[in-house]
Amino acid sequence: MSLPARSPIDVAVGILMKPNGDVLLAQRPHGKPYAGYWEFPGGKVEPDESILDALKREFVEELGMTVLAAEPWCGVEYVYPHAHVRLHFYISREWLGEPQSLEGQAFAWQGSVGVEPLLPATIPLIEWLDRLRYLG
């Protein structure tokens, strides 16, 4: 007997990109699945909330930053042991504020990404992002 398929959870993910191509990565806080892994910041989309609104809300809640504008970039579905997620990636080059550790998480601006371990769904995106940042 197979288990019923779980519907994917929609997640808004933001890639803040500085003019020099550096992007912001955050470390997942203790108490969450994959604690200590690095990812692009974001979070779950609430019912009746647009993906962009969720992205803006999450950046205020997690990092104390205001995303002024963001463009949809790509979508990825990934099945983790704890959740099936549909990740909606947005790139923002316009925001207010500097990141603050509001959930006790570490964060780092990265050019060539050197932080480890990366969240599994993030790994293929780094290569795509490098093409966008440095070749596009």
Automatic annotation (TrEMBL):
Catalytic activity: 8-oxo-GTP + H2O = 8-oxo-GMP + diphosphate + H(+); 8-oxo-dGTP + H2O = 8-oxo-dGMP + diphosphate + H(+)
Keyword line: DNA damage, DNA repair, DNA replication, Hydrolase, Magnesium, Metal-binding, Mutator protein
PROSITE patterns: NUDIX (PS51462), NUDIX_BOX (PS00893)
GO molecular function: 8-oxo-7,8-dihydrodeoxyguanosine triphosphate pyrophosphatase activity; 8-oxo-7,8-dihydroguanosine triphosphate pyrophosphatase activity; 8-oxo-dGDP phosphatase activity; 8-oxo-GDP phosphatase activity; metal ion binding
One Pfam match: NUDIX
GO BP annotations, alphabetical order: DNA repair; DNA replication
Gene3D superfamilies registered for this protein in UniProt: Nucleoside Triphosphate Pyrophosphohydrolase (3.90.79.10)
Required cofactor names: Mg(2+)
Residues spanning the signal sequence: none
EC top class named in words: hydrolase
Domain Nudix hydrolase: 7-132
EC number: 3.6.1.55
CDD domains: NUDIX_MutT_NudA_like
Family membership: Belongs to the Nudix hydrolase family.
Protein's name according to its UniProt entry: 8-oxo-dGTP diphosphatase
Organism encoding this protein: Noviherbaspirillum autotrophicum
Lineage start: Bacteria, Pseudomonadati, Pseudomonadota, Betaproteobacteria, Burkholderiales
